[in-house]
Amino acid sequence: MSNKIQFCCGFISKYNKYDAVNLAMLTRPRRASDSDNQTSTSSSISVESSNPYINSTTNQVPVTPRRLTTLSKFTSYGSGNQHHHSSSNSSNNTTSTKTTVSSASTDSYNEHSTSSYITKSNSTFSKNTINPQVATQGKIKKFFTKSKKNDPQLTKAAQLLEQRQFHESIIYLTRILDKHSNSYSARCDRAYAYRQLEKWAPALQDLNLAVQRFPQKSRAYALRGEYYYLIKKYDLALIDLSKSLKLQQTAFAFRARADVNCVLLNYSEAINDLNSALVLEPNNPYTLTCRSKVYCKLNLFAEALLDLDNVLTYDPQNASTTLANRGEVYRLIGRIDMAFADLNSALDREENNMLALERRGFLYKHIGRHVDALRDFDEILKLNPKSVFGHENRGEIYQSIGNLNEALYNFDEALKLDKDNLSILKHRSEIHRLLGNYQSAINDLDHALILSPDDPFLLRGRGEVYRLVQCFDKSLDDFNKSLKLEPCNAFALTSRGEVYRMLRQGQKALVDLDQAISIAPDNLLARESRGALNRTFRRYEEALRDLDFALQLKPDSIFALANRGAVYYMLDRYCESQMDLDKALQLCHNYSFALENRGALFNTLGKYEQALMDLNKLLLLEPENTWALCYRGEVFYALERYNEALIDINKVLDIQPTWCYPLSLRGAIYRSLGYYVKALEDLTKSLHNAKDKAYNIKYENKALLNRGSSYRIIGKFNEALLDLNKALMRDPKNIFGLCERSCVYYNMECYDHALVDLDVVLSIDPNNAFAQSQKTKLEYVRNGSESDSSSRTSSGQFFNYYSVRRVEEI
């Protein structure tokens, strides 16, 4: 229970007909409310989470979590001096997904429900109809027995309660109880004053004592039932209220029990209780307003409108508030024109009617008229700077138009006033996430989950933040919990799939992403993630379908552009690859994946300086990016800067000593440097460690070519031929492999086979100097015009020269 819950005293001079503290029927749109030092943060009944809800707040006073049935219903204190308030005029009057009916009463209301409950007399107290002095005397007669009716302490206590001076009234009531310890009415009155001051323990103590000493009197049961309602002990509340009604049927107790039934979603029982209250007090405007609220929960909007029409008839003095309520019902049924007509009429009658301003502001926001909405919310905050509702809705508007800093300011202000407001915590956590304030977002979500541990929205939100900060285990825990509560939530499935993808659990990721896309085909994140996943599976066509779709949904998606560029690169569609990667880097200059892939692309195209620029920039941002180190090592190798290449490759192998790609690359460097034993060691490890043959086929082929070359150089021609044949079966036009194999054949005196390989090389590259020279020598040898020894020496020397030159495929 919020520490702001209170028992409102309930007399507002502006609203004299019925329950002035919370007579407005409809809840404020959404969940926020306003607060002062007398209001609560909770509410009781919701129509649906996305709609404004019906509540009974007037435009005079703050909404409380439960104000239908307060002590004021029995005491009639406070109307004479309370100034005009709105439901937004309090600083902590939250409107949540549930709505509330305030308990404060006014004169007409007391005339029907309270006077009979307090005294035999039918007289009422009203600022507008009865002289305050006469009313005070009437209350003295009502509240106290004849044995103490002339005690001046009573008169003073009554006056102080009317003036809402609760501290002082407790002093006088305590003096009375010192003299008359069995005074039932004085004890109940003191309980009321304690509750107004949020001194819950002494209030409950007085009510318990009153029930204990006078178990056959109904008033203390009813008040204690309301108290249990406020602290959310609904079972105890129902017991006490039912006991009170068994002893004496009163409209107050029926209304209080209706509120409890509404919280428990027992709307039919709530209607029955309100009908019973109307039997006791026919045409009571407050009860009709409460019943219209419950009708809205049941989607019986015609009945709700009928009740509010009757309220306009029976209580024309407060027509502005009733029009605001009726305007909200019209909004709920989609009659926007009628809603505006009623809300504008309400504000014409009373320009500072806070309830009407709130409803109209929300309606403007609902239809996207943000400027008009902000104007109404600004007016609300001028009238009441501590309006939680005003700050929350203004924050939501700024969030929707992308002004995140202004939104954050408003949510901060709202949470200063109502720190446990679940709705605002959700919004602020999202703002923090969008601004990259991840720890602040987690703090808000942790706080919210303490208040609502099984809220799937909060679990999803925290899981998403953990995903963004790469706390994948915590992220999975939250997504798993949220999916147990909502198994078909596309957002949770998508994000969990993305977590699995980052953890390289590809099959689990694919299951989640497939399900998410089947639920929401236009899910951008799911399309992007599945496209990237299919890229890693080498399912390039499937990857392109998802990434193309993602770019139709969002043409400037950096993730989709970079991944599609990477797919094009793998498909050797270099021009398209560079176009996508260039565009991604125009949108985000430091996007690491795009820099990485463009660096690899430039290396493949022989644009080594451009490749080094991209890779150097990336390694400044991410010094331990192993792919970037490998790519830069490959560029250095191509530029014959072998020592620098070895530095990069050794860094990678210190981190991942069994990774086949850097092992293959280092083996090639060692071969070029003439360290053939080291080369063979690395290349053999690389081939043994290539677990995913399909994914690593490119690197495996390089390893085979380089190991075959190394075997040839050290004279192991059979081993060389096995490796080269396997590599050329996968890549029949690899010039390096063909040249190497021609030399192996030459050394094995298979001249015809050697000439075939050289012919293939020349068909691919007619100007290849090595192939031309070697072919000439082979023809001489085959024709017997050159000795075997001289030709072998010449060709061997030539090939050794060739083997240390840059070959594009390597």
UniProtKB/TrEMBL annotation:
Feature: compositional bias, Low complexity:
35-51, 87-108
Instruction: Please tell me whether the keyword Repeat is annotated for this protein.
Output: yes
Query: Residue ranges of region Disordered?
Result: 30-116
From the UniProt record, list the TPR repeat ranges: 218-251, 320-353, 354-387, 388-421, 422-455, 456-489, 490-523, 592-625, 626-659, 701-734
GO biological process terms, alphabetically, are: receptor-mediated virion attachment to host cell
Extent of Polar residues compositional bias: 52-81
Hey, what's the signal peptide range on this chain? none
Which terms are listed as keywords in the entry?
Repeat, TPR repeat
Indicate what this protein is called per its UniProt record: 2890_t:CDS:1
